[in-house]
Amino acid sequence: MQSTYFEILGYSLSNSDSSINSWLPQLLPLVPLVYSFTLMWWIPEGDKYVPGMVIISLLVFCFYSRRYLELKLDGVRKKFLVSVWLLTLYQISVYFIKGDSWTELRALLTMAVYLSFLSFLKIRIFWLKLLLIISGSGLVVLTYGLYLAHGGRIGGFINPIPYATALAAVFSMIFLIAIHERCLWKKNALFLLSVAIFLAILMTQTRGIALPLVVFVPCVLVYWLIRERSFKFAISVLCIFFLLVMSGVYFISKGRIEATSNEVAAIEAGNQTGSIGLRLQMWGAAFDIWRQRPVFGWGQTHSEALRAMYRSGDVSKALMDFNPPHYHNQFIDMAVKKGALGLAIFVFMLYRAIAMVSASSSPALRWGGSLLIALYLAAGLTDVPYRHPGTVYIFFSLVMSIYLAAPKRQGIVR
């Protein structure tokens, strides 16, 4: 008799199901997941290949394994999928009625389709951890290479802001896995890898990610110290972490700190043409734009409202020359383009994502997922991580994988 789920990477098959025609179609659905965490970041515009991979994986999966599509989902997965599709369908309507970013919509639609059949699978924790370790190790090599090649902040074909968010996502999982690991040598190895990823994040010189990490990591360690009474490990990690922060700030982020100080001084002098100043102008203008269409938003026509504000003298020429495609704040950007209704749907999706990770039976994955969501929310205060395809793929794939690797805890009702 068939089990409710078939296992991916580490599954048990009967003798009659041991042929390549049986297990290969079961492995193919994971190709987009593995690619999103590894090769996608090494290839210029590598995120463009994910939708094609999802379509091919879906076709093969449906052709060979149609019987699994008839299985029922539990309430946790079902509600999360409903929230993702609700957000997707709303953004589709905005796109066709008012125009919007096709890149953003394509990434969200890809994830909605991918999660719809990925949610029927089961991933063993061992293989998810291995994927994260491979991803983290590869990203460290890539970051260090780009940093040395460009003599400072990483550049080239990589946008450092979403890239830093992806690094933070992998860091959050590996760091919490290291804390919960019982084997000493594995704990030390994972901790060293998380240190290397943290330094890689500093190399991106992305303030919207580095600063929340400096706050969140000590909080996690203090909580763990209080709960588990692992004084020796927690105190040693705290000391190493603060040593790294100080050394990293001095050697890697010193120029960025000086630039930030200069921007703050310029703002106090009335000059808002720097990175921070332009953000302040955008946020102020966004509130006035949103008030004109508060429920359904502007879609792509928000730029027309911004030009009207410039003609009336409400925004500066520097902001118009910058011509922002988004408002460097996920919630403000969502409110302006999709209205209060779109923002409410987006917040509902985040709530269901939190419910997904909090229902996981693995403490390491549960806390790692919680830190992941917290970092995305913090990044959303100065950027739009749910707009960049790479960070969209990482977020949704990881939230679903966390639950699939360690399903619902007993007694948890969501």
**Total of DSSP H or I helical runs spanning 4+ residues:** 17
Overall radius of gyration: 22 Å
Name the strands of the widest sheet in spatial order: 1-2
Quote the beta fraction.
under 5%
Work out the number of β strands.
2
How would you summarize what this structure contains?
With 414 residues, the chain is mainly α. Helix content is 71%, strand content 1%. The protein has a two-stranded parallel sheet.
Structural write-up:
Residues 193-347 form the O-antigen ligase-related domain. The protein is mainly alpha-helical and 414 residues long. It is built from 17 helices and 2 strands. It has a two-stranded parallel ribbon. Helix 4 runs antiparallel to helix 5 and helix 7 (160-180) runs antiparallel to helix 16. The longest helix is centred in the C-terminal third of the chain and has 29 residues, at 330-358.
Sum up the structure in keywords.
414 residues; mainly alpha; 2 strands; 1% strand; disordered N terminus; O-antigen_ligase-rel_domated; transmembrane; membrane; ligase
